[in-house]
Predict the structure of HTH-type transcriptional regulator.
Amino acid sequence: MNLTPAMQNFILHWGEMGTKWGVNRSVAQIHALLHIAPEPMTAEDISETLNLARSNVSTALKELQGWKLVKASRQLGDRRDHFTSVRDMFDLVTVVVEGRREREFLPTIEALREVAKDAETDATPAKIKARMAETLDTMEMFDKWYQDISRLSRPVQMSLIKLGGRIARFLPKSD
C-alpha cells in the first residue's frame, strides 16, 4: 500500500496518541494503518508499509487481537492471516471503553473497596475514611451510569450523544 502524506500523518498521529494512552507507538501505528486500509492486510504487507520488523508486527497484532481491536481472517488459496481493524467507529469506541473499564476502572473500584474495608479496622482518621468513601461512591456511580447506558440500544445511545449538552436545558439551574 502506498501511503499519501495525509495517510502518513494519520498513522503518525495515531501512534503519538497511543503513547499518551500507554500503548506502544508501533502497536498504535499498526492499528491506524488497519483502520484506514480499504482491504485486509497480511503481516508482511503491514511490515513493508510501515517499515517495521516482522517480529514487531506479529507481537503488535497479537496485542491488538487481545484487545479485540483487530481480527484475523483467511482467504482462499492463501495460508497467511489477513488482518482488519474494527470498521465501525461506534463499535471501535465501545471496544476501547469496555477494555479500559475492565483493565483499569473495575480493578480500581475493587482496590478502593478493599482499602475502605481495611480502613474500618485500622487507625485511619475519619476524614480520610470519608474521602476514600466519597472516591469509591463516585467511581461506582460513574460505573453504574456506564452500565445503564451500555444496555441501551445503539440508536438510543446515538440520540443521547447527539443531544449532548443540550440536555442541560431540561435540568434545574445550579448556583
About this structure: Helices lie at 5-20, 25-36, 43-50, 54-66, 89-121, 126-151, 154-163.
